[in-house]
Amino acid sequence: MSSVRGKVAVVTGAGSGIGRQLALELARRGARLAISDVDDPGLAETAVQLRALDADVHTAHLDVRDRPAVEAYAATVAGHFGVVHQVYNNAGVAGGGRSVLDTDWAAYERTIGIDLFGVIHGTKAFLPRLIASGDGHVVNVSSLNGIMAQPSLSDYCAAKFGVRGFTETLRAEMLAGGHPVQVSVVHPGGVRTGIATAALGHAQQHGSAVTAQQQARTRTYNEKLLKMSAQQAARIVVDGVEAGRPRILVGTDAKIADLLVRLAPRLYPRVTVGLERWLFGTG
Ligand SMILES: NC(=O)c1ccc[n+]([C@@H]2O[C@H](COP(=O)([O-])OP(=O)(O)OC[C@H]3O[C@@H](n4cnc5c(N)ncnc54)[C@H](O)[C@@H]3O)[C@@H](O)[C@H]2O)c1
């Protein structure tokens, strides 16, 4: 029997992509779900799909950057279900596309605010409840770019390396304190979702000049790099959670990046520059 059966699982950013598929995979394995997103129509669609699986679902509009809102949300979910076992801090944005010299402060604040602080907010708000459950699990979504840095992704890499450091610290603390909470960090490689297109859409909506090069970059991501289905990625993550894996690498690309960085720490930046030139004609 699945070890998530009957558990209460919280999934942020569940209105599309990996988050929606995580919620569906958890529901198929018998979990009860608290799902949230800033994208209300996307979240409503996920809820419809979950209810078609007969899942017990609680939905909420939640911006993970908003610390008081995340804290209030944790209390609401605990009040609704009476217990919370697992939190999947998944909500995220792509950011990137410009060099450090050209990245503006707003981009750093947004990407780090959502991708790193969102994870910290969700973890801290739910942690006492996960400990109280007697069988908790924190699952924080980093990236291949939480292992390997790449040119033009300084905001995203700063956030995703941060997620890894934060999560590994938490794991050590849960072990040291003898707390009944497992901790996993997830490093997906390319997964076929709308994340790259959403980043371009955000830039356009907020009046940033979107260059032809950024558009070409998004196309390359969508056509060449974001390959694995979100459903398969979600299955790998939930399998990893059920197996109690502390690090969950999703996809061959993530596994290769992990090996490259370990085996050739001095060489790997040259490899990423070469890749950048080959894929995007920049770097
Ligand atoms: N797709 C990939 O190739 C890939 C690779 C590595 C890591 N990831 C990570 O996986 C996670 C999910 O990404 P995805 O690919 O499914 O993208 P996605 O764009 O399909 O989904 C992200 C979801 O997060 C939501 N979101 C954005 N800002 C939010 C905020 N402030 N508060 C709450 N929700 C917010 C969006 O509305 C969206 O529904 C992200 O953390 C991403 O960085 C994705």
Automatic annotation (TrEMBL):
**InterPro entries named among the record's database cross-references:** KR_dom, NAD(P)-bd_dom_sf, Sc_DH/Rdtase_CS, SDR_fam
According to the lineage, what is the superkingdom? Bacteria
Q: Which UniProt keywords apply?
A: Oxidoreductase
Q: Which Pfam families match?
A: adh_short
* Domain (Ketoreductase): residue spans on this chain: 7-192
Q: Which family does it belong to?
A: Belongs to the short-chain dehydrogenases/reductases (SDR) family.
Protein name as catalogued = SDR family NAD(P)-dependent oxidoreductase
Q: Which organism is it from?
A: Pseudonocardia acidicola
